TrEMBL record:
SUPFAM superfamilies: FMN-linked oxidoreductases
Family, similarity comment: Belongs to the glutamate synthase family.
InterPro entries in the cross-refs: Aldolase_TIM, GltB, Glu_synthdom
Protein's UniProt name: FMN-binding glutamate synthase family protein
Lineage of origin: Bacteria, Pseudomonadati, Campylobacterota, Epsilonproteobacteria, Campylobacterales
Sequence ranges assigned to domain Glutamate synthase in this UniProt record: 121-536
GO molecular function, one term: glutamate synthase activity
């Protein structure tokens, strides 16, 4: 006892430390039987698991970029969304690898003020209500559910501020897509208002803290433990919560898309979310109601490497998501692989025609291309219907690249299914042109498109319009930690791709919305600059002859058709072989 009374603080500290280490050593070597490594290397072997845990979130900060061609492209996105000058000093830190496409510049270049500011694209010219997009760019499909409510609101606000379209994703048009819609009519909205006392508490909280905290407190005061509280949007000025009441008759909904909403592309997947009844069947009335707020429809037949149906893990299916999708909360939501009205291309086109009649607006399909056999049947059926005077065919075809897929996809498919977007767009443009129907269809491209040079190349190869997912994700704060699915107990650390309330409620909606708008603005600004050095006055002047190809041996090829003939082996012999096999 006298010994213990005389030891100093540091002697006591080190004694306790060594006792803990010894106990830890004994546990790892003689007790635990979970990790083989720790039996031979107790304690220090745990460094492996620590470093493995840190590898993904810290990967981007140490070492060269492999997935996006170069780290410089990622830096461009980060500067663009912050509206900073996008110049590199001395030389690229990581030059683009070969082979690569090169852009032909003009002998006599243009000044940027000589290039048109017109980046509009028109879909469904022959429909009763064609859609004229104000930009060649859209935020690609990301479902509210895979993305947090706050993340969706940031994208919607950014889309509205930047005046560019936003794809709803297969989760449907949820309440969060109405966050900019403040001139709503109560006849199609459900309104909930707090008491005078609750409003006063909100004002006090806002005075001492901020609007986000005040809104959260006010929501809890008004709704209590109502599990559907998050399905309501708060009108901060009126202190009223609102959400669309989809149970009202179609006549209650606006005839024209409200001016204070962004241009929404409504995506329908095999799960039919947002356009289905309680039994999971297609609901024409619900579809028509949703389309009162949307510009056109995209039917998702396939997406990236996710050739399976969309999957949302049970922990992400909150009561709010269950309300939006007409499913049960906290149960896995796995959509079928095959679209229910696409058992044949003829049936799919008939369904397209049905949607066109119901909405009077353009309808397209989203597919992935592996070879000529994926696109030629579509081209053949379009040609057949055009010749018959039947206009029940897609107004546009969205082509997705084979890699990735909405942040989460089966790893075994990511490098094995589908061509990259450049090969895909070239092939689809070629086949539709051969069948004489290219002028009937708009081509939409998506897949690892981040920077202005990507846009120029893809549009030169045949795209009319581009949907971007990864670039907009990064502009909205994504740090590429690769914890999007949350299936291993790891949630998106910034609150963008998670339903974890503790993380997502700290997400800066207004700040990130501005960055989303900035990214779009600077993409178009730099595209215009590239058109100027190419000597082109309008984006529509781009074509494959504006490109060259530098192969892995640094040989320059100036005939792009020959390049793709070798890359895709789509010469006459292959086409004849394909036709014979049919």
């Amino acid at each position: 006892m006298e010994f213990l009374e005389n030891i100093t603080f540091w002697e006591e500290f080190w004694l306790i430390f060594f006792i803990i280490i010894f106990a830890w050593y004994v546990h790892d070597k003689y007790v635990q039987r979970k990790h083989q490594l720790l039996v031979n290397y107790p304690i220090i072997g745990r460094l492996r698991y620590l470093l493995e845990e840190l590898r993904e979130p810290f990967r981007q900060y140490f070492g060269d970029e492999k997935f996006y061609e170069s780290k410089d492209k990622l830096d461009w996105v980060q500067k663009a969304c912050r509206d900073k000058p996008n110049y590199a000093s001395f030389s690229p830190s990581q030059p683009l690898p070969k082979p690569k496409f090169m852009i032909r510049h003009a002998n006599i270049v243009l000044n940027e003020d000589e290039v048109d500011d017109d980046f509009t694209v028109t879909f469904g010219e022959n429909r009763e209500k064609p859609y004229r997009a104000n930009s060649i760019l859209a935020r690609s499909a990301m479902s509210d559910g895979s993305i947090s409510p706050e993340g969706t609101r940031a994208f919607v606000k950014g889309s509205y501020m930047g005046n560019f379209p936003i794809n709803s994703g297969e989760g449907g048009v949820t309440s969060n897509f109405f966050v900019t819609h403040e001139k709503y009519d109560p006849k199609y909205m459900t309104l909930v208002e707090g008491t005078a006392f609750q409003k006063k508490i909100k004002d006090i909280v806002k005075y001492f803290f901020n609007g986000a905290v005040a809104a959260d407190v006010y929501r809890k005061l008004v709704f209590g433990k109502d599990e559907e509280a998050e399905t309501y949007i708060l009108d901060m000025s009126k202190k009223i919560f609102y959400r669309p009441n989809w149970n009202l008759p179609l006549s209650a909904f606006p005839v024209q898309v409200p001016a204070d909403m962004p241009d929404i592309i409504f995506q329908i997947s095999s799960g039919l979310y947002g356009a289905r009844d309680l039994d999971g069947k297609f609901d024409p009335q619900r579809y028509q109601k949703v389309m009162r707020f949307c510009r056109m429809t995209e039917i998702k037949i396939a997406q990236g490497a996710k050739q399976t149906g969309g999957k949302l893990a049970a922990h992400k299916v909150t009561p709010a998501i269950a309300y939006y999708r007409n499913v049960k909360a906290y149960e896995n939501v796995f959509s079928p692989n095959r679209f229910p009205y696409a058992n044949s291309i003829e049936e799919l086109f008939d369904f397209v025609g049905n949607l066109q009649k119901l909405s009077s607006k353009p309808v397209g399909i989203k597919i992935v291309i592996s070879d000529i056999g994926n696109i030629e049947p579509y081209a053949k059926e379009i040609k057949k219907r055009v010749d018959e005077g039947n206009d029940s065919y897609p107004d546009f075809i969205s082509i997705d690249a084979g890699s990735g897929g909405s942040a989460t996809a089966p790893i075994e498919m990511m490098e094995r299914v589908g061509l990259n977007i450049r090969d895909s767009i070239y092939l689809v443009d070629k086949i539709l042109t051969q069948y004489g129907v290219r002028d009937k269809i708009k081509l939409v491209a998506s897949g690892k498109i981040l920077t202005p040079d990507d846009i120029i190349i893809i549009m030169s190869l045949g795209a009319d319009f581009i949907q971007i997912a990864r670039g907009f994700m990064m502009s909205a704060g994504c740090i590429r930690a690769r914890y999007c699915s949350g299936t291993e107990g790891k949630e998106c650390p910034v609150g963008l791709a998670t339903q974890d309330k503790s993380k997502r409620r700290k997400y800066f909606v207004f700040k990130q919305a501005q960055k989303v708008a900035n990214y779009h603005k600077n993409l178009l600004k730099s595209v215009k600059g590239m058109l100027a050095i190419m000597g082109l006055k309008n984006i529509n002047q781009l074509n494959k002859h504006r490109l060259m190809f530098l192969d892995k041996d640094s040989r320059v090829h100036d005939n792009i058709d020959d390049v793709f003939k070798r890359r895709l082996d789509i010469g006459k012999d292959m086409e004849d072989e394909y036709h014979e096999s049919r």
